């Protein structure tokens, strides 16, 4: 019989599919810490642990790997991220709880929990990468256990993840300046599959980290293809790029709020052609219109009506570009596109920063760029060269 966790009735509908909820690394650490504390005071094994998450969902989790010492107990909870694709799903989060003479609950990170090495993150430099909500969850549960046991001494909680250092290589942590392991995260205690809010939050965290460490200008690509193109073809600090996925508008909004002075986007035309029509979420389920936008701009550049209709029947941007190139209008069409991309980028950012974009395709390579690209390139190279010198 399958064990119940308390999440059986919770799910999201994503692309017409039912996706089950999971629980965060923060909930795993909380469950392990509470179970260890209960065993420390009660003296008997705790096979399951129950607690309430900030989301308002009560979890019932199985306790693993129980070990004991004279004044300490250690155990683990295995993470289940539900149907959310997550590098940390399935890993075991350990918590060791030991009595101390100091009053209160002290929370530390052990093996496999990252350490903060750069400014701009939630925890101070040098701290374990255990965010404030998981810390508050652990503290609340352990204070309740201490009250129930009439214990007035202190507790030291050490959270560890034996496979954390290895798994962290597949996360954002190395880019953010979190070294040695994963982060213990979660604002609600619950993982909601494919959450756009979570993706946007991860972009915000990376952007804020850049800004807090002195960056005034940002280099942004929608994904890995942009970074690979930049590395091979452009003289830019490609390793400093932030990936915004489909969230061009949200990236601009966050940059404005943080006082960023400029952004250079490097993008495949398949994504950024949509921005030329003011589409700021480039996911195909929000809007496609690639052929329509290319056809309209080709008409502006002087293409024949028949060729414009032919573009409307294409499936990929490369097919459309072949028609445009056949008519000898690739450069004029790219000028029309990049002018409109810049207009809508500036419109979204209220003209509060210097903006630019470079477009490319896998088949045609470099296609065109907006005004200000050379200036932004110089500013970015100077910014990161200066940072290395310091």
From TrEMBL:
Q: What is this protein called?
A: Cobalt-precorrin-5B C(1)-methyltransferase
Annotated pathway:
Cofactor biosynthesis; adenosylcobalamin biosynthesis; cob(II)yrinate a,c-diamide from sirohydrochlorin (anaerobic route): step 6/10
- Which source organism does the UniProt entry give? Blautia hansenii (Ruminococcus hansenii)
The alphabetized UniProt keywords are:
Cobalamin biosynthesis, Methyltransferase, S-adenosyl-L-methionine, Transferase
Family, similarity comment: Belongs to the CbiD family.
Gene Ontology MF terms:
methyltransferase activity
Pfam assignment, any one? CbiD
**Catalytic activity annotation:** Co-precorrin-5B + S-adenosyl-L-methionine = Co-precorrin-6A + S-adenosyl-L-homocysteine
**Which InterPro entries does UniProt cross-reference here?**
CbiD, CbiD_sf
BP GO terms, sorted: anaerobic cobalamin biosynthetic process; methylation
* Enzyme Commission (EC) number: 2.1.1.195
Give the enzyme's main class according to its UniProt record, as a single word.
transferase
